[in-house]
Design a protein that fits this description.
Layout: H1 9-21, H2 23-33, H3 45-52, E1 62-66, H4 72-81, E2 84-89, H5 92-101, E3 106-110, E4 123-129, H6 138-148, E5 149-161, H7 175-182, E6 188-191, H8 193-209, H9 211-217, H10 220-229, H11 237-243, E7 245-252
Parallel strand pairs: 1-2, 1-4, 2-3, 4-5
Antiparallel strand pairs: 5-7, 6-7
Helix pairs in contact: 1-5, 2-8, 3-4, 6-7, 8-10, 9-10
């Protein structure tokens, strides 16, 4: 598929240029999420530290991040566990940045979900934080990931409804859950919708805190986008939860 036809491709190419240059955005991420992972979504330290629990001890542990961006989250996981880190993303700018920042026990590739391939039974952990939405065929991609996992490996997914993916009735009606069930793949799930509501409040507060710096850098458009992304927290949680939901899926091979 031609890259420019991919969902948000041009926006993410510009996003990763901005994250590499903007001091305001780095400060915003630290205040909103606890650490700068160049977040466009919801990967705060509380969510990322959930991932660490599923990384086994050992000398040859391999992690794959689906939609790795510029690799900062993988860098954090490597720092915590000394694992080998692998990631792919469709953004060339993101992958260029990742390759420059992380060169030890690391491999980064530019590629698209549904097109890129890895050897069978290679990874102890596959992580997808807000990237499964880009799969052109969710059922097929789930099977592909399960093939990449070693025996006893884990798939960890941060999955949201109400923005890219339409809101459905409950977790079992999500596209991801239906794909797993169609393939007879058991899963565990945690509903973190309220946690996400609180995080979005913090995200909005952090953006407002750094508004002046964004504007002085010439990055007012990115500040305005943060305001749009967090406008929903002006509603009560009850109304928010009617339109948005967020889940953590864990699949054990």
């Amino acid at each position: 598929m031609e890259d420019t036809k991919l969902l948000f491709f041009d926006e993410y190419e510009q996003f990763y240029i901005m994250t590499g240059n903007s001091k305001a955005f780095k400060a915003f991420c630290r205040d909103a999420f606890g650490q700068d992972f160049s977040q466009d979504g919801f990967s705060d330290l509380r969510q990322i530290d959930r991932i660490v629990r599923f990384i086994p001890e050992g000398e040859n542990v391999l992690i794959l991040d689906v939609g790795c961006g510029n690799g900062k989250m993988l860098g954090y996981l490597q720092e915590k566990t000394n694992a080998y880190i692998h990631g792919f993303d469709y953004s060339g700018n993101a992958i260029d940045s990742a390759k420059k920042m992380f060169q030890n026990k690391a491999e980064f590739r530019q590629g698209n979900i549904g097109e890129i391939e890895y050897p069978s039974e290679q990874f102890d952990l596959v992580v997808s934080m807000d990237s499964m939405y880009f799969a052109p065929d969710m059922e097929k991609f789930v099977l592909q990931i399960m093939r990449w996992l070693k025996k006893d490996g884990v798939l960890f997914v941060g999955y949201q409804e109400g923005d890219v993916m339409p809101k459905t009735d409950n977790v079992r009606t999500t596209v991801l859950a239906k794909a797993l069930e169609k393939n007879n793949i058991p899963y565990e799930v945690e509903d973190i919708t309220f946690e996400t509501y609180e995080l979005l409040k913090k995200k909005r507060e952090a953006a407002l805190l750094h508004q002046k710096e964004f504007e002085e850098e010439g990055n007012k458009d990115w500040f305005d986008l943060l305001m749009i992304q967090t406008d929903c927290v002006k509603d009560s949680f009850e109304l928010f939860a009617q339109n948005m939901a967020r889940y953590i899926f864990v699949v054990r091979k």
